[in-house]
Structures are given as C-alpha cells and as structure tokens.
Amino acid sequence: MVTRREALIGTGAALGGLAISSAVSRAETENADAGHVHATASAGRNYTPVVTPNGRTLSFRMVGGVKVFHLIAEEVRHEFAPGLKARCWSYNGRVHGPTIEAVEGDQVRIYVTNRLPAPTSVHWHGLILPAGMDGVSGLTQPPIPPGETFRYEFTLRQNGTFMYHSHHDAMTQEGMGLTGLFVIHPKYAFTPTVDRDFAIMLHEWRIDPGTERPNTLEMTDFNVLTMNGKVFPATEPLVVRLGQRVRIRFANLSAQDHHPIHLHGFEFFETAVDGDRIPESRQIRKVTTLVGVGETRDIEFVADNPGDWIFHCHMTHHTMNQMGHDFPNMVGVSPGGLERQIAGLLPGYMTMGETGMGDMMHMPIPKNSISMRKVDGPFGAKVMLGGMASVVKVRANIRNYEAPGWYRHPKGTVASRASSDELRRDGIKT
Ligand SMILES: [Cu+2]
C-alpha cells in the first residue's frame, strides 16, 4: 500500500521541481475543502502538508517566483455546531481564516480585500518583516477602507507555527473571528519527521442564547469555546494510523483566556513554542500544554495506543457551551415545591443542577443556542461535553483518513459494573 508520505514524495518527483501549475493549485483547493490537503511542493522542497480540521489551506498562485495569496475579509453566518449560528467576521468566508502554508525562504505576496463595514488591517503575528508590513492600523499603515484591497509582501525568514489577525480595532475584529494560522515549514523537515500534521486555533466567544452576534465587549464570562471555530461534537476528529508520528499545532487568539490543552492516552513532547523549535535535549514530556493568549505550541507524539482519545481545554468551564453558565448553584439542594410554583409562572421552567449539570438533559433550550450535551456516545449514554474539545482517533489498518466511527474495544478492556464475585474476591464492601 502506498502511504500518504510516499504519495507526496512521488508527487514531488513528478513535478521535478517545477513551479506549480494553476491546475495543481485548483486541485489543492478542492482537496483542502475536503479536509485533506495534498502536496504543495515548491521547487526542490517537500513537506507534509498541514491539515486544518474543520478548515482548509489557502491556495496560492506562483507569479515570477512569488507565492501570491488573497484574503477577503467579509461577514459570514458561521455555524459553531448544529443549533448555533452567529454573524461573524471571516477571511474568505471561514471562521477562522484559511491556514496560510509556505516554506522558509519563500517570498509571499498577500492581497487583503476588505468587504467589512469597517476599516481593517492584517498583522502577521510572530513574523520578522519590514515594519511597514506589520499591519498595525494607524502605526505602520493606513487602515484598509471598506471596498479596498491592500498588498503585503515579505520574505519568510523563520519556520514554525505563526498566526495572522486583524490589527484594527482588534478587540472587536479578532473577537468577531478575524484570525488564522500561518504555518511556515522549514527548508528541511525536522527529524523524526511527522506523518500527520494538524493545526488548531483556539478561541472564545460570548453569544447570548437566542442572539446572533458575538458580544465582543465581554471580558470574563465566555460561553462558546472553540477549536477551529467549532464546538464539540462539531469538531472534526484527528484520524491517525496506529504507529504514525503526529504533530498538533495549537494557537490561541482568545480575548482573555489561556487554555491548558490536555491530551488523553499519550505523553507528548512539546517541540516548539511560538514557532521556535525546541532542541530535542530540552523537549519536555508532558500531558498538558498551556497555550497562552497570543502564543503557539507544537506537540508531537507517536500514536502507539489505539482508541478514541479526547483532547480538551482543562478549564472545565471551557468544555461547556452556553448552558453551563449563569445558573444558581443547586447541587445538593432539593427545590421541593419551588419548581412547580415557578413553572406555573414560566412554562417550561426547570430548576438546574440538583445532582449536577446532568439534570439539564430534558430542559427545552432557547432558539439558536447549544447545550453542553447533545452527543450520543457509543455506550447508549450521552457524552457530557461541549466547547473546546476534539478527539484523536487512532486505528490500525485504515486506508484513508475518513472518520472511522467509534472505537471497538478489545474484549475485557472496558470499565464495567463490578460483579458480586469480583467484589467478594477483593474484599470490597459497597
Ligand atoms: Cu480553556
């Protein structure tokens, strides 16, 4: 069987170092739309393309040796998960913008068209470039007025995981979604090379149930926490073949919160901070990586443990959606006749959380809102989770990276009800 990597190397050889034709660029766009990005080998170089779950890679055109990209800032009705849509600001109709992918040493020319009702500008976060290309509206350039297109052009002197985002009224515009990933591959891949390379942007929003616009004035109580603009279960799983080496690049442009991302099932190495590769001798083995606001982290691990492995922000409120917020604490409280009395005044009323948030299951929810638990799990129970979470699916013998369904556990490897024989044998009194 031809592996993906071999296929890529084959593609590179077939191209023979030629600049990519527009036909290839078009194919790349289509593949990217399907979530499976293929080779964009530039002259004499090869890399494993980044996969942006729920997203895509921005296509480019080669013009006289320069990689030419086009970003269009515009409003879009974005779906966070079925049941919740909001009017956000996007690049190229996507929240967040498409991943810009290039190679160290490339010269890039990036056109930015403003179709927003407000002026804007784009800052290339972490990149070393001429001051006038830094994209700080008012300081290094005039703002891009609505309807106009500006040109940015610079040479990529670094490699690693970087970002781009609006730098005009940043609180409003980043808060509305105007952010994206900027991945620069090294001229020669770091070893050991990875088989799968994913990129995920973390973000937080305040969207009051029933409303349709993010409230960018919020400072503390965010109720929609996203990976690549989606909340679990709408986050696309990361599908990996057993034994592959995996990199996940995390970036955080939340307004106020750092996110400790915890991966189940593996120890990983933190291999880069803010695009700077950490020498192997100094890489730390971890299970949680703290991604600060304005920072990026790369982690790598060998997927040697089959299963469905969740990874999520470990701030527990960040794995809840809107319905986890703003309720009186009722844990341990018996509401007695209160609930019936209030229900007489407010039809559909239900007191929350007598035994925890699981009580909320039957509550009718407002229009255009999402509760934290909607997922039918593989065991006939609901998965109580939402927000900033996704799943790595590690499987042997998969032929493609389509989501393979729930993991089928080997017999005897699932936690289950203890039998009376077992309890007696081990002296457990219940
Ligand atoms: Cu978090």
Question: What is the element layout, followed by pairings?
Answer:
Blueprint lengths: L3 H12 L6 H12 L27 E3 L2 E16 L2 E8 L8 E4 L3 E8 L7 E4 L23 E7 L4 E7 L3 H6 L3 E7 L10 E10 L18 E4 L10 E4 L3 E8 L6 E5 L4 E6 L2 E2 L7 E2 L1 E4 L4 E7 L4 E7 L24 H8 L29 E2 L5 E2 L5 E7 L24 H6 L5
Please summarize what this structure is.
The protein has 430 residues and is mainly beta. It contains five helices and 23 strands.
Features:
single chain, 430 residues, mainly beta, Immunoglobulin-like, 2 domains, seven-stranded mixed beta sheet, 10% helix, 31% strand, disordered N terminus, binds copper (II) ion
Description of the structure:
With 430 residues, the chain is mainly beta. It folds into two domains: 4-313, Cupredoxins -  blue copper proteins (Immunoglobulin-like), CATH 2.60.40.420; 328-369, no CATH class. It is built from five helices and 23 strands. Strands 10, 11, 13, 15, 16, 17 and 19 form a seven-stranded mixed beta sheet that branches. Strands 1, 2, 3, 5 and 7 form a five-stranded mixed beta sheet that branches. Strands 12-23-20-14-18 form a five-stranded mixed beta sheet, with no helix packed on it. Residues 1-44 have low confidence and may be disordered. Copper (II) ion (CU) is lined by residues 225, 257, 259, 313, 315, 318, 388.
